[in-house]
Each structure stands twice: as structure tokens, then as C-alpha cells.
Amino acid sequence: MSEFLDNFFKITERGSTISTEIRAGTVSFFTLSYLLLVNPQIMATAGVAPSDAMIGTALSSAISCFMVGIFANLPFGTAPGIGLSAYLSFSLVQANIATLEDSLTAVFTSGILLFIVALTGFTVFLMKIVPECVKYGIMVGMGLLIAMIGMVFVDLIVANDDTLVGLGDVTGDILLQLTLFGVMLVGTLVYHDVKGGILIGIAVVALLQWTITSSFPTQIIELPILRNNDFIQLEVMLDPSKAAVLWTAVGCFLLICVFDMSGVMFGLATLGGLIEEDTGRIPGSLWVFFASAVGTCVAAFFGSTPIICCIETASGMKEGGRTGLTACVIGFYFLLSLFLSPLFAAVPNAATAPVLILVGVMMMGESAKVEWHDMSQALPAFLTAILMPLTYSITTGMIFGLGASAIFYVTTGQCYHDIKPALVNLCCSRSGLNPGYEKIPEESHLILKQGGAMSESSESSAIAKERKQLYRS
């Protein structure tokens, strides 16, 4: 058996061992497992039963992890994105823009489109057309939104008639104080790089609250019940009255999945030395997109959100995980968690809110990549990031960021700079001149260089001046 696993996953070839891969998968799962607690609580605010959301989270994550491990042979863990769950719950359902069923149908549709986009190679095009500053702004904005949701969950931030928002009762609310303790506890554990530190923090805070409120769970293990909730209603995607909202949501789900997964895969592959030196490609990366697409469709069916490649997998790769066996081990643990839904459902908000706040902190790191000294980069990134938490809408932030970036593309002259070579080639070709920027007729000794630099001989200055004028026009 060990020989089969070694040959199938190329374990020895990548400098690893079976025991190392199993240990790496275990560490990655414990780092990822907070999603089994947090994601159902977010989806519950949209109307999904926590047990159903937990099953959807675990099952879709397990299926996609197995696909990544078996077909891509990569040690990447996959699970629903917290930011996407927040978008569905707060920006679509609670904002009364779409019903739960319509929103999950949009998730299902985005899964199908992700498969098509990956198959056709359109993901590369999507990555190119969106400015880098907006991509960074999206990550930062989602982090701020996630952190704000965690603070609202435990009344750290409350409504205020005079100032819109205000500070909660920090001195009198014992559960709020417990949350703040959890924030510092988890932050300290992460600082010291404690394996499974996030899960440890959740467990400690949950035990404290259960003790304080005498509300220990009465049931821990339960056979999973796979219910058909009729969430998916594909006909609504063709309803003219809902098309604008739902297809916009599909676009948001799709773009965020592509941006997030591309960046995370590159980072993880770089960490593990899995990038091909001659081509710069990540072998098997296409199957990661396929796994995400299939997992997303499964997740939507059970009341969860799109599957992405999780950066938390880096913890397992630091333990030595280099092959798909690590991903399969993560998937196996996700399957086991299906039987623990009563335990996960009993975990209080005070235990999971610190994680949401810390996730927001981690996502803020992307802001360092924005060129803040360049206003054409800074303003789109800022609008993208700041409007997401303030409007509780990822879509709004993306629209304003992309719009600002498009306007700057024109007002800064970048648009003219990009189309200038095409115009020069067009003018030269119509005049019988060489449309390129290389040396043309020897008798004129005229050299056209991209950027406008010219030199000419005195032998035929009249011809050279005429061509220079044509070039400038």
C-alpha cells in the first residue's frame, strides 16, 4: 500500500514521506477547521439551518480536496471562502436584494461558469483586465467587512442614532469581554506559530462561555442528514426582473474566486517549490479550478458558498506537505467532521468572532502591495476597500474601484499610450511605410523608435521630416 501511495503521489520524488504528508494534512485541517464553525454561523444569518450549512461546508470541502489531491497532486486545501459567505448573507439576502434561493442559485451558476472559464483558459484574461490595485483593494475590503461582521456578531459595534455606529457595552457585557480575550488569545497563538492555534482559541473561549452560561452541548455526534432544500432554481437566472442582480452576483463570485485562487495557488506553490522552473507554471493547477467548480456546485446545493483554495494550507506545507496525499488527508478529516454537526452548532459567537477579526487582520496585509504614492492606484484601491464594510456590499466596492480605475486610465493618458503603437502602425501601413518600429528605407537612414526618438541623415531630410510629422500625428 505504501509503495502504491508513493508511486501514485510521487512522494519520494518530491522529497517527502507518507508520514510527513499525513502530518501535514492533519496540521492543515486543524488550521482550516474554524471554517466549520464560522461559515455555518454566517450562513445562518441568511436563513440556512446551521446543521445544513455545516454539512454543505464539510462535504463540498471534502470532495474538492479529494479532487485536488488525486487529479492535481497538489497539497492544497479547499473550503468555502468566508468573504463570499459574508457577501451572500449580508450584501444579498439581508439587504433584501435577493432571496436565499436566488443567491444560492447564483452560487451554483458561478460554479458552472468557473469550470467553463478554467477549461477555456479565460481565467488568464480575467486576471489581466482587472488592475492590480483593485485586486488588492478587494482583498483588503473583504477583510474589513469580515472583521466588521465579527464585531457586530458580539455587539462590539452597535447602531447609534447620532453617529450611525458606536461602541458596545465593553465594561458591562461579560460575553463581549470574553470575545476580546479571545481576540488576544488567538492573536498570541498565531504570533507564536502554534499549530492549530486558531482552533485552540475557539475551544478555550467556547468552554469558558459554556461554563459561565451553563450551556454545555448535550449531543456531540450525529449521523448527517442530507436534506433536499430545493435551494437551486435555475429558471430564476432567466427572469428579466432578477437577471441584473443575480448575474452581477455571479460575476462577483466568479471574479473573486479567480483572483483569490490564482494568488493563493501561486503563493503556496512558491512556498513548496512546486513551480516549474522552465515554464513558470504550477503543474495540475487547472484541476484545482475544476475542483473548486465542482465543490461550489455541491456547496450551493446544501446551502454553502463558493469553494476557494485556502491560504491556511501553508501551515501544512511548512510541515513538509508536497503532494496530493496532504490534500486527501484534509478531505478525509472533513468527511469525519460530518458526524460532529451538533458540536459545531453549539459553538457560540463569542468563540468564532475573534477568528473573523483576525482573518480581517491577515487580509489587511494586501494593502502593503498598493502603490499609495500613485493616486491612479491609490484611489481605486481605497474606494474598493472602504466601501465594502461601510455599505456591507462587496459588489459596491468592486464597481466603484473598477469605475475609478477606468476613469484614471483615460485621464492619466495611459489609454493613449496603449493605443498609440496601433495608430502609428495603421498610419504607416496606409502610407506605404513600414508599420513596425524598426529601420526603414536605407536611403533615408530614418530610424523610428518606440517612445518617439528619431534620427535622420541630411541626405533626404525632406522625406525624413515628412515621415516624422506622420509619426507624430
Going by helix content, strand content and strand pairing, the class is mainly alpha
Low-confidence stretches: 437-460
β-sheet strand percentage: under 5%
Mean pLDDT: 84
Radius of gyration: 26 Å
Give the ordered list of helices and strands: HHHHEHHHHEEHHHHEHHHHHHHEEH
Number of domains in the coordinates?
2
Number of helices: 20
Distance between the termini: 72 Å
Strand order of the largest sheet: 1-4
Tally of extended strands?
Answer: 6
Label the overall shape.
Answer: globular
The percentage helix is 55-70%
Task: Summarize this entry quickly.
The chain has 473 residues and is mainly alpha-helical.
What labels would you give this structure?
65% helix, mainly alpha, globular, two-stranded antiparallel sheet, 473 residues
Account of the protein in words:
It is a single chain. The chain has helices at 2-9, 18-32, 34-44, 50-72, 82-93, 100-120, 122-129, 132-153, 174-191, 197-213, 240-272, 285-302, 314-318, 324-336, 341-345, 349-363, 375-391, 394-411, 414-430, 461-472; strands spanning 78-80, 157-160, 164-167, 307-309, 447-448, 454-455. The chain folds into two domains: 2-365, no CATH class; 418-472, no CATH class. The strands form three sheets. The protein has a two-stranded antiparallel sheet. A two-stranded antiparallel sheet has the order 2-3. Strands 5-6 form a two-stranded antiparallel ribbon. It is mainly α and 473 residues long.
